[in-house]
Design goal:
4 strands, mainly beta, two-stranded antiparallel sheet, 1 helix, elongated, two-stranded antiparallel ribbon
């Protein structure tokens, strides 16, 4: 199974030297639904795909919703 998600452009506060001074950075965000299995509460959010990341980080509001 294969999924394809387009990169979206995100504004940056300063020019990005490695991108020839562009003011936007392409990032691979994907849509997510986070569910608390105990209460069935859920929230839609988006996640930044980082294949080299060692950790998963969610905002405190999402962690509280799922009971972390």
């Amino acid at each position: 199974m294969e999924f394809r998600f387009p990169y979206s452009l995100h504004p940056m506060p300063r020019p990005i030297v490695s991108l020839a001074g562009r003011l936007v950075r392409p990032r691979p965000f994907i849509p997510l639904v986070v569910i608390n299995p105990a209460t069935a509460q859920w929230i839609r959010c988006r996640g930044l795909v980082d294949s080299g990341a060692d950790d998963v980080v969610f905002p405190l509001s999402v962690a509280e919703l799922v009971g972390i």
